[in-house]
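Researcher: Structure prediction, please.
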Amino acid sequence: MTMRTWQRDTLSYDLSDGYSLMKSEPLEWGVHFSVYYNMAYNGFWKNGGYDMPSDKAYMIYHNNVRIGGVCIAPNVIYHLFFIPPFSQKHEVLGLLKELLLSWSDPTKPIRAIEILPDQIDMYSMFGFQPNEFRNRWMQRPTAKFEVEWDTHVNVKTPKFDPSSAGKKLIQENELNRLFYLAYTQGIEDIRRHRNTEEDHREACQFASETNESLLEASTLVYDKQSNQLIGACLISLQGGIPAVFNIAVLPTHRRGGLASKMLKYALNVLKSDYPILRLYVMQGNEAELVYHNLGFQPGLLEVQHCSIPASVSDVTD
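Model: Predicted structure follows.
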């Protein structure tokens, strides 16, 4: 009988027709994922390692034979893969959808995250509605650059607030204000339906995803005359590899190469400790050309998420 209640510590779930899920050790799951998920995708992430810790990672079995794997939890599914010669992919996704419907909060959408081109049609057949925008990762090797800052700016490094009980940046409010002014009415905000300054309170999340070493590669650029924060490039750590958490320049200070200089500075500082810098960009964002011109190479386009809307996610076929 299918297990219909999700519990974080439960190790296995029966689906039906001989199918089941079994929670996997990170290394075992990561090795299989790196081979079977998508070779173009895996080639992009080949230096990411195999140890992928997640309490959502399960192997999929059919009649006690391992036939694939998936990351799944209430209201979310991603990284679904199958092991050849198994070919009943639609049957399995149908069972996983049923499980999600039984696990999930019906007042919230069920999301399939970062779906690659070879799976988007399959997810769509099961009612996952593709988001309207596409994203891709880009990466390039770190390298030594000589960066000459303009004379009208002051360049500073973000700092943790020593008086805070948890990780918090001294410049948190300034950064949130910059993100709002830099992105409001831009392609990212329009497509993500972000309309208010409250939607841009991202500096708090960044503080939890970075460290002192990566702060040295991050930059805050101030206009000397007004002392206004006009640009920032924040470097976080994702899967053991540095990634651009956010890069923003005020519209009044664009077209002067500031974003390129901040990225070159990050690549230079990171060179001594890390081989690669990554970033995530939305298709259609003009910044993609800046990254291309700096030598960042693109990975596969992804549908950032597909979803079964909250209003119908409690209805089964």
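Model: The longest strand covers residues 229-238.
Researcher: Thanks, that helps.
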